[in-house]
Amino acid sequence: MAIIRFDPFGDFAAARGPWIPAVDIFETDAHDVIIKAELPDMTRENIEVTVENNTLTLKGERQMPADVKEEQFRRVERAYGAFTRSFTLPTTVDSSKVSAEYKNGVLTVKLPFREEAKPRTINVEVAA
Question: Is the pTM of this model over 0.85?
Answer without folding.
Answer: no
